[in-house]
Amino acid sequence: xxxxxxxxxxxAASVVAxxxxxxxxxxxxHHPAKxxxxxxxxxxxxxxxxxxxxxxxxxxxxxxxxIFGPLxxxxxxxxxxTLNLSLISTTYNPVTTKHQMMGINSTFGExxxxxxxxxxxxxxxxxxxxxxxxxxxxxxLDPYIQYIKxxxxxLRYLISVCTGAALLARAGVLNGHRATxxxxxxxxxxxxxxxxxxxxxxxSHARWIQSGNIWTTSGVAAGIxxxxxxxxxxxxxxxxxxxxxxxxxxxQLDWRHDPFADLYNLTDINP
Length: 271
Fold this sequence. Notes:
Elements: E1 53-57, H1 64-77, E2 84-89, E3 95-96, E4 111-112, E5 116-117, E6 127-130, H2 142-151, E7 157-160, H3 164-171, E8 178-179, H4 186-191, E9 201-202, E10 208-211, E11 214-217, H5 222-235, H6 237-246, H7 259-263
Parallel strand pairs: 1-2, 1-6, 2-5, 6-7, 7-11, 8-9
Antiparallel strand pairs: 3-4, 10-11
Helix pairs in contact: 1-5, 2-3, 5-6
């Protein structure tokens, strides 16, 4: 029996059966990415059940789609299984997407109210998602970076979207890993490294990279494909396909497909 999809911050819901997406406009031409000599490290087969406790790191001027794209995937997944969501920041005050680079007199933006703070963090957090956005260039990010550094050893998985990889690098958790990030902000992302732990292989031609238990993705919309790859890896292809059909999204299945790296003439940065 098919049930309608209601996208909300759900903590539990019933199984949803969805059909294949309907036809749409012709696909744009495929521009193959440059081949990479790097092999994505597999995630070891977990002995535990799939994760249920998710967290989103919130800082001022985060990029909206970096959060809401992955969240709609997880909202839909929460209709099939129990998931818990925590929104984490420095205080309980609303966190805004607004930033100084917006147009003159523009008030366009969204606010999210945190459910937890660094002083009152969620218990048993298993997956943390770190967005990007203009806020990753702010001067007062030390509390966020420290939280990533402290919580990472207890996480099962860590995901960053866009320039969120810069915060992971500054926290030192990308040491010894492959990673990618926003291609328009490539110079910024790859320069934000922990000086004592800079052993990071930055992959330019990658829509996302999975390295061990860490996923990093290219810019903004790439977070959707990266999180779908996470869902496929952790919950299985059938689950990922069902969710994609439910939200009528056509996934990019090739992590190496990245025309934006070609657009900006980018190359890998070796440790």
